[in-house]
UniProtKB/TrEMBL annotation:
Transmembrane region(s): 355-376, 388-407
Identification of the protein by name: Putative membrane-anchored protein
Keywords of the record: Membrane, Transmembrane, Transmembrane helix
Lineage of source species: Bacteria, Pseudomonadati, Pseudomonadota, Alphaproteobacteria, Hyphomicrobiales
Length: 417
């Protein structure tokens, strides 16, 4: 390699925009930083939606201050704050939070946000053989519990929302190190957060349920009327179908993004539950099974509503196409009738023209003969006498000449392109 080539390699730099874009893509691989910790701790996780529904900043961060660590994450629709507070030793009472929801909103940099979910996880040591007394101590009701991480921990929750708007989860750590524990806690929080975000589509599905029932009835009515309404009376029917189609399209546009997000979040919940690697805890329903049994029906309701909206839209457009086809056929029939009437009128005009041509030959011949008569009479007064036989012979000659001339003119006109 020559020195010139080496100089070119050293001085050549990549395009700045491409370099920064590649850096952004690579940074995405390292986004969503976890908080790694061990020992007893209370971990609070709150998800907020901005009041205007727009997340403007996507910079995530982790801050550590002694025994307290705070992780801030910006997602597409929401912002989460996760706060880990280490405990000195095991506790038999649920630790009270030292921050209110407004304080968490301040940490998130949001003013008057909408609360999505508030989950607290109490991380303790190895689970006791009998969970019932511990669960009773922490005021847990009908509890779901699973052994997770291949037997490395146990998770318990009754999924009840307390007066402070939070739900509580117990995590008994058997042999998870700080990194695995942080990731496990993160997965549990993601299950709860994405479950709450997915369920935002359920109120929309419930709101649309009676409307879709009315749309169905209206569509059936319009379809039946389309069968009996004459095409000439289509205007009112077309207007009503158009209004119905507009309502359906509007409802679809309003909920398309929400239902699409519900489907996406539901898949994330399923993936995170699978990542827990659950096994059965004797005497308890599994944590993931409890979530799925009560979560999937709501997701399927949203999916069914979205499908129903799509089917209604297609059916309405199909009915509109059928009516427009009938109208088009009627218009084409009317056009054909008008064309036939024009053809009939044209044929009549041709007949009249032919009759007029016959009269015109007679009229022109009569005019020419009158001129000849005038010439003969004038010549007779001046002393030139013509016999009447000449006038008689002139009549057929003039008529024949006029006829030939008219025929030649018609032939010339037809020959023109």
């Amino acid at each position: 390699m020559t020195s010139k080539t080496m100089e070119q390699l050293i001085t050549t730099t990549p395009d700045d925009s491409s370099f920064h874009q590649a850096a952004d893509f690579n940074a995405e691989l390292h986004a969503r930083p976890s908080i790694y910790f061990d020992g007893p701790a209370i971990v609070e996780h709150i998800a907020f939606m901005p009041s205007d529904g727009v997340v403007k900043d996507f910079h995530d961060s982790v801050r550590v201050d002694g025994n307290i660590s705070v992780r801030l994450e910006h997602h597409t629709e929401f912002v989460t704050v996760t706060r880990v507070r280490k405990l000195a030793d095991q506790t038999l009472t649920w630790p009270e939070s030292d921050l209110a929801e407004a304080d968490f909103a301040t940490l998130a940099g949001l003013a008057s946000p909408r609360l999505v979910c508030h989950v607290s996880i109490l991380v303790l040591g190895e689970a006791p053989t009998d969970l019932s007394p511990v669960l009773k101590t922490f005021d847990f009701g009908d509890t779901a519990a699973s052994t997770i991480g291949g037997g490395s921990a146990q998770v318990c929750s009754d999924f009840r929302v307390r007066e402070d708007h939070s739900s509580r989860i117990l995590l008994f750590n058997k042999d998870l190190n700080a990194h695995r524990l942080g990731r496990m806690v993160r997965r549990i929080f993601e299950i709860e957060t994405y479950r709450a975000m997915a369920l935002l589509g359920l109120p929309e599905a419930r709101r649309l349920a009676p409307l879709l029932g009315g749309y169905d009835k209206k569509l059936v009515e319009l379809t039946n009327r389309n069968l009996i309404t004459p095409a000439k009376d289509h205007k009112q029917l077309l207007e009503e179908i158009t209004i119905l189609s507009s309502h359906i399209i509007s409802a679809t546009a309003e909920t398309r993004n929400r239902f699409g997000a519900t489907g996406a979040y539901a898949k994330i919940v399923e993936e995170r539950i699978a990542m827990l690697r659950e096994t059965h805890a004797p005497g308890f329903q599994r944590f993931g099974t409890f979530v799925e049994r009560r979560f999937k029906p709501a997701v399927r309701t949203c999916e069914a509503t979205a499908i129903r909206l799509g089917q209604l839209s297609q059916a309405t457009m199909h009915l509109l196409d059928l009516l427009q086809t009938r109208i088009q056929v009627e218009i084409e029939f009317q056009n054909a009738t008008q064309i036939q009437a024009m053809a009939d009128r044209a044929a009549t005009q041709v007949k009249i023209q032919r009759a007029v041509e016959g009269f015109s030959i007679i009229a022109i011949s009569y005019y020419l003969l009158s001129l000849m008569k005038f010439v003969f009479e004038t010549a007779d007064h001046t002393g030139y006498h013509f016999t009447p036989v000449i006038m008689l012979v002139s009549i057929p000659i003039v008529v024949a000449a006029v006829l030939v001339t008219v025929l030649r003119v018609k032939h010339a006109l037809k020959a023109e392109p």
